[in-house]
Every structure is written in structure tokens, then in C-alpha cells.
Amino acid sequence: MSIKDSNQITLPEDTKTWETFLKENTGRQFTVLSVEPLQRDKAYVGGLGDTVFINLEDSKRLVAKISKAGGMGRDYQEDRARDALWTLSKSTLPRQPKTIAVGSLKEGRLVPLSSGTEYFVVSEEAQGRSYHLFLSDALKRGNINEDDRKAALKLSDYLVDIHKTKGFPSLYKRHLIDVVGSTEGMMGVVTYLWNELPEEQVKEKFGKSKTELRKDILELKKKTIEYADTIEDKIHRSSQIHGDYHPYENIRFENYPQEFWILDRSRAEFGEPADDVVAMWMNYLNHALLDKGNYSGMFRELGDSFIENYLKKTNDYEMLEVVQPFVVWRGLVLSTPKWYPATPIDVRHKIFNFMKNVSEVKEFDPNKTNSYLLE
Q: How far is it, in rounded angstroms, from Cα 29 to Cα 16?
């Protein structure tokens, strides 16, 4: 099957097909009432495949996901197979839904992984509501409440907890390589989310020519590679990480702000903990820019609480010397019009200023965030 053909594949909606598959793979009898596709939030048009809900008796649901071709490290069948196998073997963190079966899809049939061509996973459902929707609620009403404050601290404490597990120093360098040079890292983000933008969209969403924008991004790439080279030997920092700790569908609160689930663990099992911290903190920065035009107000309160709690409880102030590559990578994701089409031009410009300025300092100071936003 070609890469193009794989994009035409969809998961079946026949209930008996799923009942048979689940029984064969788990030895348990399931009664499937219906199958329905996930309806994505319009504010986030990313994602790397299709998802369906498998509705069972007693109002319970399973979730089936299938990756598709189209870049971001999923061009080949073995890439997509790795996605499924990764999810099966790495659903081991606290509060992470467990994967119960892996199969493959061939000509509309669900068959054993070894004989199939397209791959999917079935996991327990992470019930609740995406964290980004709670942030959007606060933005709309113009204030945060105690639940919002507690949620930020809980998400910070979660990282404190999982980052306590250290080991596998060789994976630290692998993590840096993947963040900077892989198809899901900085190079992939630039190639698939920036360089493929048409000239007219660059002018509309960024206010400059594509040539000018590519020049700016090239400078960011150079600085990031140089900085990654200076920190790659800090292998003592290798920690258990999530790898894609952001609020857009990857964190869901079932009972806000008490109970939450984390989803889509990506890229690395062990690596630099700054990856997780920056991924979440920059979303507080982004919401502050949407709210106030700078790092102030209610989202600064949440951002400061999140990072100060983490630093105090881990005493990992060395992290402020290694955040630079992760700031650039996450900033390029947050500012791309391909995934975040509604972001205003001035916010994109400030995120670019932030990436540029942070990549030039030896130690990041969160208290100087507003100065990093300036040209």
C-alpha cells in the first residue's frame, strides 16, 4: 500500500467487527453498541490520524486510534506500526489510560498485527474535558478561580513526581537528537508546519514574505543546534518524561481540578525534563499573550505558579540552563498557522521574539519573560 493510499484508510464502524477483534485479543466478551468518530475542537486542527469511540454497555467506552501518512515521522508503514507498539508498551505512567489491544487494518478487516498493513491501538478512554478548554473558559470570562490555580499546581506536581525516576543516560542524547533533528522535532516542524505554507498564507498570518520568514527560522535552527551541542553531555539529567505535555487534548480533567489523565506520550521515555516543563509553561505564556498582549495577568499567575512550584520541589535550577532548544521547538509549534490558524499576527511575532531572545541567553529567567518578548 502506498503512502497516499494509507490516507484513505478509516477505522470500521461495524459493531460486530469490533466485538470479534476485542474478544480475540483480550479473551473477554464485549458488547459494542455503536462506534462514533472523534469530533475535534475547532481551535486545534492538528493531530496525526483518526480516532473513534467504541461505545460499550454500562456507558463505558474504548478509544481506537490509527495513524496516517503525511510527514511528522509517519511516512512508512513501520513508522505507523511503531506508533501502535509504542502505545502498547509505554502506557505505564500514573493516570495514563492502559492500552488493551493492538491490531492492524487490512481491507476493512481487523487482523493480527503481524499480517496487516495499517496499525491502530485500543485504549481505555480518558474521560473528561481537555485542559485547553478550561484555559479558554478563563480567557472568555476574564478571570481565573481556585480550581484553575489548583489545576496548574497539580499538573506541576505530576511532573515533579514522574521526573524523580532517573536513568538511561544514553537516552538523554537520543532525546536531544529527536527534539532537534527528527521528523517530529524542530526540523520536522519547520519542514511540515512552516516551509510548506503558501506565500499568501505567510503574508496573511505572519505579515512578511516567505523568504523573510524562512530566513528568521533558519537563524533559530542554527542557534538551537548550537545550543543543543553545548548541553548534550548533561546525561546526569536523564529522567522519565512524558514528551508532549501540552493542554490540547493531551491532558484531560475528569473531575476538575482533582482528577486528570495524560495522553499521547511521545518521542521519548527518558530524556530532558525541561521538555515537559516548557511544553506546558509556554501555553500559559501563549494564553497571556492572547489575553494581555504580554506575560501578565491571570495566565502569568498560573504560569508562575506552575514553574515556581516545580523548581522549588525539584531544586532543579540547572533546568533553566537547558530550556533553550525546547523553547524554540515548542514556540514553532504554537505559532504555526497550520495548527493554530486563529492566533493573531502580533502574538506570533512575540513568540518568535521570545524564541530568538531566549536562544541567545545562557540561563533563562522566567521573571524576564516580558523583555524576551521584545524585538
A: 11
Q: What residues form DSSP beta bridges with 62?
A: 54, 124
For residue range 68-77, list pLDDT tens digits in order. 776 666 777 7
Q: Cα(54)–Cα(169) distance, rounded to whole angstroms?
A: 40
Please tell me whether residues 302 and 176 are part of one structural domain: yes
State which of 92, 124, 156 marks the end of a domain. 124
CA–CA separation, 26 and 367 (whole Å): 52
**Please, which pLDDT band fits residue 6 given cuts at 50, 70 and 90?**
low
Q: How far apart are CA 297 and CA 293, in angstroms?
A: 10
Q: Give 195-263 as a 3 state SS string.
A: CCCCHHHHHHHHCCCHHHHHHHHHHHHHHHHHHHHHHCCCHHHCEECCCCCCCCCCEEEEECCCEEEEC
Whether the pLDDT of residue 79 is over 80: the answer is: no
pLDDT of residue 279: 97
How many CA atoms does the CB half-sphere of 336 hold within 13 Å? 25
Domain harbouring 359, CATH code:
3.90.1200.10
- Predicted TM-score (pTM) of the model is 0.81
What CA–CA distance (Å, rounded) separates 245 from 266?
A: 9
* Domain count across the chain: 2
Considering only CA atoms, which of 276, 224, 218, 220 is closest in space to residue 251?
Answer: 276
- Residue 115 has a pLDDT of 45
Contact at 8 Å (CB) between 244 and 278? no
Residue 94: cis peptide before it, omega within 30 degrees of 0? no
Length of the chain measured in residues: 375
Report the alpha-carbon distance of residue 73 to residue 266 in Å, rounded.
12
> What is the Cβ-side half-sphere exposure of residue 162, based on CA atoms within 13 angstroms?
26
